[in-house]
């Protein structure tokens, strides 16, 4: 079987957040992008539930001592032992473990030549930020996820923190960027969750105040904890002691970027029923090129689950990319 892999970048940018009454099911699954730049493929998910992560040796000069490492450890713990808000209030069983040694190799992405040497890396960019923003925006942090384009299985995820342009802090939340606020959001991308406000029919103004909303202000700390949408999303994707959660798209939504409830003549996107596509071959050939700076974080909220995730053997690999980010 010939497989391809793709890489997806998920970012967090600086912008003001609007507030109002939350919509229903305002969470999304990031999904595989096809050759037409549509997120019509399987949802991005890990096939395992215990994920290891590593710290780059340099840390950041923004924060004294090793407090940044303690903050990142606490950020991973936020996603552990999560219980859903929606009945029957099930739990997720995602767990994280820290690799014992600091990493000295600055590699963001997947090393296909040495697959056993990959790690899910946390790295600060004090010396310069290599990723340009869009329309004057600046990226606070960026998650690079490498996955199988055939099944959506995540192979590697690395988080870069833009400490060149933003002053990170673990305490002063008035004029600086709270590290935990940023890290908890980015770890959601590591787990395969996307931005609900990237979809106009889900939560375009972040009314749900979900951790996975793509917007933040200086001093924000509300993303240190998970909102109900974030909790329900994780429980759906990784239900405790069960295979990964999926629900099938309605027949009218197959092969389209939109998804939702079907009528006799059309597909009503997102509002009535969403889906997280299960592992299956793409209807269109997976992209193997950089596809640009789009906001298509993909997927949509899901309300029922069935099926199982599939592990893959990586035989032939190629990289494709898209980026989603917060805007000031």
What's the architecture in CATH terms?
3-Layer(aba) Sandwich
Low-confidence stretches: 1-6, 14-23, 257-265, 267-274, 286-328
Strand order of the largest sheet: 3-2-4-6-5-1-11
Write down how many β-strands occur, each being a DSSP E stretch of 2 or more residues. Answer: 11
The CATH class is: Alpha Beta
Structural class: alpha/beta
Shape: globular
The helical percent reads 10-25%
Could you give the topology of this structure?
Elements: E1 5-13, E2 50-55, H1 67-78, E3 95-98, E4 121-124, E5 139-148, E6 154-161, E7 168-169, E8 177-178, H2 179-190, H3 228-237, E9 260-262, E10 267-269, E11 323-324
Parallel strand pairs: 1-11, 2-3, 2-4, 4-6, 7-8
Antiparallel strand pairs: 1-5, 5-6, 9-10
Helix pairs in contact: 1-2
């Amino acid at each position: 079987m010939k497989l391809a892999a793709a890489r997806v970048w998920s970012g967090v940018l600086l912008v003001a957040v609007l507030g109002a009454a939350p919509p229903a099911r305002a969470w999304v699954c990031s999904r595989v992008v096809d050759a037409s730049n549509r997120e019509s493929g399987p949802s991005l998910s890990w096939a395992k539930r215990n994920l290891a992560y590593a710290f780059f040796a340099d840390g950041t000069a923004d924060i004294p001592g090793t407090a940044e490492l303690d903050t990142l450890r606490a950020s991973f713990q936020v996603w552990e032992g999560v219980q859903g808000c929606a009945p029957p209030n099930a739990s997720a069983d995602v767990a994280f473990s820290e690799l014992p040694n600091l990493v000295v190799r600055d590699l963001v992405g997947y090393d296909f030549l040495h697959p056993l040497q990959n790690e899910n890396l946390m790295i600060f960019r004090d010396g310069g930020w290599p990723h340009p923003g869009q329309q004057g925006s600046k990226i606070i942090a960026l998650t690079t996820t490498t996955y199988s384009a055939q099944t959506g299985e995540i192979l590697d995820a690395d988080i870069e923190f833009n400490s060149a342009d933003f002053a990170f802090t673990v305490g002063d939340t008035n004029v600086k960027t709270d590290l935990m606020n940023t890290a908890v959001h980015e770890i959601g991308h590591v787990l395969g969750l996307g931005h609900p406000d990237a979809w106009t029919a889900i939560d375009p103004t972040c009314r749900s105040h979900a951790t996975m909303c793509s917007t933040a202000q200086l001093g924000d700390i509300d993303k240190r904890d998970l909102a109900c949408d974030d909790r329900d999303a994780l429980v759906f994707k990784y239900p405790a002691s069960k295979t990964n959660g999926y629900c099938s798209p309605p027949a009218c939504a197959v092969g389209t970027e939109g998804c939702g409830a079907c009528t006799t003549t059309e597909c009503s996107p997102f509002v009535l029923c969403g889906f997280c596509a299960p592992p299956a071959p793409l209807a269109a050939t997976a992209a193997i090129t950089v596809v640009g700076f789009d906001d298509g974080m993909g997927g949509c909220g899901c309300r029922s689950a069935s099926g199982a995730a599939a592990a893959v053997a990586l035989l032939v690999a190629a990289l494709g990319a898209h980026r989603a980010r917060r805007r000031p």
